[in-house]
Automatic annotation (TrEMBL):
Stored PANTHER family: NADH DEHYDROGENASE [UBIQUINONE] 1 ALPHA SUBCOMPLEX SUBUNIT 9, MITOCHONDRIAL (PTHR12126:SF11), NADH-UBIQUINONE OXIDOREDUCTASE 39 KDA SUBUNIT-RELATED (PTHR12126)
Organismal lineage: Bacteria, Bacillati, Actinomycetota, Actinomycetes, Micrococcales
NAD(P)-binding domain residues: 8-147
Protein name: NmrA family transcriptional regulator
Coiled-coil region(s): none
Amino acid sequence: MARTLVTGGTGHLGRLVVPRLVEAVDEVRVVSRSPHASGDGIEYVVADWTTGEGLTEAVRGADVVVHLAGDQLHNEATAQALLRAVREAGHRPHLVNVSVVGAERVPVRTGFDRRVLGYMPSKYAAERVLEGSGLPWTNLRATQFHELVLIAARGLGKLPVVPAPTGWQAQPIAADEVAARLVELALGSPQGRVPDLAGPEVHTFRAMIRGYLDAVGSRRPTVPVRVPGGASRAYAAGANLAPDRAVGKQTWAEFLAAEAGPGRR
Ligand SMILES: NC(=O)c1ccc[n+]([C@@H]2O[C@H](COP(=O)([O-])OP(=O)(O)OC[C@H]3O[C@@H](n4cnc5c(N)ncnc54)[C@H](OP(=O)(O)O)[C@@H]3O)[C@@H](O)[C@H]2O)c1
């Protein structure tokens, strides 16, 4: 069975993907910017994505690369670094990439948009790097993970009055469901862009924050806050949604019941 490299395997999604891969393939290697102890069927290797040091060795011998490494703004450079390493390693692994629903639909024109909401265009640019690579690829776009919304709600929920961007919507999905689909794709043949994976329900961001506050027993009020810029308008218009692909199972309320409660803020 295939030797699989996972980039970003230490992250939230990666920690759900990697154990599934360990069950399914012979060799799982995880590349990280920092050292981790190998074990439990996982070999960790360190790489510097800026200089490329260690990346070519990490990629060498992989039949499949599941590319999850990413951050807010540097996804294009990360994809380019991965491609350079693949070329230097001199073979043609199947690249399985995770991206985000609406990646091309959120415009970033101003400095404010770029700094605060540049994630979507950055993911879109990364997609184009991988799709133009000439290598076999599969790209899955998912909506925001419940866990990401929870992190935001926890942060905002500490404020005495909780700000919620006016009109922003989301269709959150369980990261574990995305992980399962990615592993299925990694075990299969390259498919190009596959149908999006979106959560079962669309909510306003404000309603989700209210749901979190209620779940943890907080009576703090939410207040709508207008976030300027075209990217914010795009979120309000639903650019990050895929209602026709609402195939996710776990709802936001079910996730909150499992992950947040009066003692678990
Ligand atoms: N969170 C969401 O709602 C969501 C929705 C759709 C798609 N996605 C995509 O899913 C992937 C994983 O998301 P996640 O929430 O699991 O992210 P995460 O927890 O932040 O993990 C991402 C991992 O990528 C590595 N990384 C971060 N910045 C990097 C950089 N500049 N260069 C190279 N490696 C870097 C880190 O690993 P090391 O520190 O070990 O190097 C980190 O553990 C990302 O590509 C993200 O865009 C996320």
